[in-house]
Specification:
Number of domains: 2
Family: Belongs to the TFE family.
Helix content: 40-55%
Largest sheet: 3 strands, antiparallel
Strand content: 15-25%
GO molecular function: DNA binding
Shape: elongated
Keywords: DNA-binding, Transcription, Transcription regulation
Protein name: Transcription factor E
Number of strands: 6
GO biological process, one term: transcription initiation at RNA polymerase II promoter
Strand order of the largest sheet: 1-3-2
CATH class of the largest domain: Mainly Alpha
Length: about 170
């Protein structure tokens, strides 16, 4: 995927927004060609220097930016020259999807293997053991706890798990 196309993809825009937030999005959405200093970015984008630095650091932590330091011979000050490395985005997104898949599989198993009770007044859900400890009465309002059918939730999770597996090209039998 070409660099320009990458930044026009709504999924990638959402991913970058989730990483750097609204204040850092101008930094993430308009990476310059070649190296640039944080001060140059702040001036060009008319942003606070701290917001630019925060966004750059987050991008760096996620392998989407790198820097090299230069020391001024006269003053001894360090200058950081930043380079954006957005070619790592597809790999980062795949790792995020794998983490999501793992979490969904664990949650789906938990939902499938536990029995739940619901206080329909307070909308608080309890596992069977908790409900039994409370005598099947809500500890907040005293209303009776009703057995909860979570089959629709489990089915929705199974459907999303299948979609993620397909998207990640993971064999369902694996």
């Amino acid at each position: 995927m070409a660099f320009e196309d990458l930044l026009e993809d709504p999924v990638i825009q959402k991913y970058l927004h989730e990483l750097v937030g609204p204040k850092g999005m101008p930094v993430a959405a308009a990476p310059p060609d070649g190296e640039v200093t944080d001060e140059e970015l702040a001036e060009t984008l008319d942003l606070e220097l701290n917001d630019v630095r925060r966004a750059l650091f987050i991008l760096y932590e996620n392998d989407l930016a790198s820097y090299r330091r230069l020391r001024d011979e006269d003053s001894g000050w360090l200058t950081y020259l930043w380079t954006f490395e957005y070619e790592n985005i597809p790999e980062n997104l795949a790792e995020e999807m794998e983490r999501l898949l793992d979490a969904l599989e664990n949650r789906e198993e938990y939902e499938r293997n536990h029995e739940f009770y619901l206080c329909e007044v307070c909308s608080i859900r309890f596992e069977f053991g908790e409900a039994m400890d409370f005598g099947f009465e809500c500890p907040e309002c005293g209303s009776p706890l009703e057995s909860m059918d979570n089959d629709r939730l489990v089915v929705a999770m199974e459907r999303r798990i299948d979609e993620l597996r397909t998207e990640l090209n993971i064999d369902i039998e694996a």
